[in-house]
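Table 4 source record.
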Amino acid sequence: MKIAFVGGTGPEGIGLAMRMARAGHSIAIGSRSTERGEEGAAKVREVVPAAAASGGDNLTVVAGADVVFLTFPYSGQQTTLAALGSALDGKVVCNVAAPLEFKQGVGAVALSVEGNSALQEAIAQLPGARIVSAFQNLSAEELQQLDHPIEADVLVCGRDAEAKEIVIGLANQIEGVRGIDAGGPSQSRYVEMLTSLLINLNRKHKTQTAIRIVGI
């Protein structure tokens, strides 16, 4: 499978790309500049020498991709999706954005967004794409430690059942991770908000936390 990472040069994008490359997928790292995308791909090949990894600008890497991961901060979502426009039509898109901000003395704070969730806003902005949300709660640091499994569940939200199954399948290819169908787009709000809680727990306890759902 060919997987593109829009805004893929950040820690979360690089970590997910490393894991997908290790699972045998062809990956393409996108950025606003071709040079930064190529630098991101080089980082992946450094850690996964056999990786089929390329880099380029965001528009270039989504061309021909089977799945597109949106791994940029929520603050850039509207602008980035507007620039991509119809290039994402018909594609399975996984939004990893979690709306949050950092406040001094408080830590990470989940933001209330106009569209209820980052996923719902993305769906409204690009109705031709098959957008789901997932992976907001996985630690970028843990993702990049390829020799260690990640004991975590990945909650996948969206209204496209087939797209959700594809992303769940990708989550299951990360050692220790289990993908779970968490329901429709409105549920993404609660998954996104969990990210700020986990960040604050990590800071308080000096660790890398994750979530597990029991009983399923």
